[in-house]
Amino acid sequence: MREIIAILRGVNPSEVEQICEALVAAGITQIEVPLNSPDPLDSIARLAQAFGKEARIGAGTVLDPAQVLAVAKAGGRLIVSPDTNAAVIGEAKRQGMISCPGAMTPSECFSALRAGADAIKLFPGSLIGPSGLAAIRAVLPPDTKVLAVGGATPENFSDWAEAGISGFGVGTALYRPGDTVAEVAENAARIVAAYDAAMT
C-alpha cells in the first residue's frame, strides 16, 4: 500500500464513488473525507460499502471522540486530525481504527506517539519543510511513520523523501471541488508516478 492519503475536502456524496474508483485504479488506496465536507458521513458510508475491501476509508478534520464513533459507525477505518488530541487518538484505537493526528513540533509528535498514534501527520508541511522534518526525525523513534500534509506536491516529493518522510497526504493537488473524474484520474496518475520515483 502506497503511503498516500487522498484528501477529498469538499467532495459531495453524489460524486464520491466515481472519484474513489479513479483513485483506486491509479494506485491510491487510502482516502479521507474531511468532516467539514458536505454530508461527510454519507460519503464515508458509501465508500466503505463500495471500496472497503480494497481501500482504507476514513475521515479527516476529526476533532473529538464523538466524531470518531460516528466515523466508525459509518464504516470508516482511518482517523486523521489537524491536531494532537489524546482523547481522539485513544477512541480511534479503542475502535480498532488507524490514528493519524496532526503534529508540528517534537513535543506534539511524542505526545501523539505516547497516546497510541499509528502515524504522525506533519502539518502544515509547508511551514516545517524537509529541513524541519530532518531535525525532528533525528529524535523520533526510527520506525515512526511520518506523513507530510499541507504543501506536499509531486514537485517536492523527492525533497521530502531525502529528509526521511514516510508518505504524504495530498489535497488540492489531487482534488478540488468541481474537478471532473477525468481530472482527478490525471492528477492521481501524476502523483503516483512522482511518489514511486521519489520513494522507491
Strand order of the largest sheet: 5-4-3-2-1-9-8-7-6
Look at the helices and sheets and give the structural class: alpha/beta
The span between the termini is 13 Å
The share of residues in helices is 40-55%
The H-and-E topology, N to C, reads as EHEHEHEHEEHEHEHEH
* CATH architecture annotation name: Alpha-Beta Barrel
Number of domains: 1
- CATH-level-4 superfamily name: Aldolase class I
Average of the residue pLDDT scores: 97
- Count of DSSP E strands? 9
CATH class: Alpha Beta
Strand content: 15-25%
Question: Please, how many helices?
Answer: 8
Shape: globular
Rounded Rg? 16 Å
The name of the CATH topology is: TIM Barrel
Instruction: Please give the oligomerization state of what you see.
Output: single chain
Task: Describe the protein.
By secondary structure, this protein is α/β, with parallel strands linked by helices. The chain has a single domain, classed as Aldolase class I (TIM Barrel). It has eight helices and nine strands. The protein has a nine-stranded parallel β-sheet. Strand 1 (4-7), helix 1 and strand 2 form a beta-alpha-beta unit. The radius of gyration is 16 Å and the shape is globular.
